[in-house]
Amino acid sequence: MAVFTPLADAQVASFLSRFDVGELVELKGVPAGTENSTFFVTTDRRELVLTLFEQGEHEELPFFVELLDFLDEHRIPVAGPVHDREGIALHELADRPALLFPRLPGTHPKAPNLEQCRALGDALGRLHRVSRHFPGQRPNPRDIHWLSAMYHKVLGYLSPEDQALMQDEVEGYQATLGESPELPQGALHGDLFRDNTLFDGDRLGGIIDFYNGCTGDLLFDLAIVINDWATDSNGRLDAARHDALLGAYLAQRPLNANERELWPLMLRLTALRYWLSRLLVVYVDPPAHDLTPHDPEQFRQILLARIQYGALPLPNPGDAE
């Protein structure tokens, strides 16, 4: 259950009085998520989502508010935070930072079809195109510097073969990226798995949960998406979903020559990023709440598949049509 701080109706009704959103009708805890307390809030005027932030760097929350406001202003399908009558979005409730959002339509796609992949690729391409002009800065907390600093912490829990695999991969990334020109930069979602989207049929209702948002290599964000959205149960890339998503993305933001060259490496790097982060949760830094960690083996298999089979050819822009 992802309600770590329970709320009473009276608390929420008082909180809502700061906003022009109507009177509280119903408050319902949301049994999903791993880090924050989330509630569905129904008023006599609209449907909302209330989030209490339980952990993480609270001083970074203004960055997320600014990013969501920026993307919302540029008509990217995100839930921009609701601002109160004084123009303030970030508040405190039950001694936790709190944000209120409009509730977007749809559900998480467990097995995305090609139309859903095209819709997500188009939206992510537009997001990355406009995010290059976002003025905020928050360095990517899970980039090659993090990998280099953290992978030593899990080596003792791995087989000799996996130790060598992880060490060789990190050293390869360091060597290649250290000599490469800077990739196109912008604001990233940072964790755009299927369960961070909402679809109403084939229509993208919205992209949610930007709390891994940061600024950095746009290619890093795209590789995370492909490794989740276009991977089959054996860790190999599914060509149809891969081409549908990337074709739509590239129609909005073509990759430059350096990005195309580094694409296979970035798929591997982001697979190792999740293998390592899940290993850290299992062995080194368990979650603050009683939750079941994600299985690290999934991304170990994805990494091995990317090494064995490489990347698929990048589609030409417009191939999603």
UniProtKB/TrEMBL annotation:
GO terms for molecular function: ATP binding; homoserine kinase activity. It comes from the Bacteria. Pfam families: APH. One of its GO terms (biological process) is threonine biosynthetic process. It is an enzyme of class 2 (transferase). It catalyses: L-homoserine + ATP = O-phospho-L-homoserine + ADP + H(+). InterPro entries: Aminoglycoside_PTrfase, Homoserine_kinase_II, Kinase-like_dom_sf, Pseudomonas-type_ThrB. Keywords: Amino-acid biosynthesis, ATP-binding, Kinase, Nucleotide-binding, Threonine biosynthesis, Transferase. Its EC number is 2.7.1.39. Residues 27-250 form the Aminoglycoside phosphotransferase domain. Pathway: Amino-acid biosynthesis; L-threonine biosynthesis; L-threonine from L-aspartate: step 4/5. Belongs to the pseudomonas-type ThrB family. This is Homoserine kinase. It comes from Halomonas huangheensis. The gene is thrB.
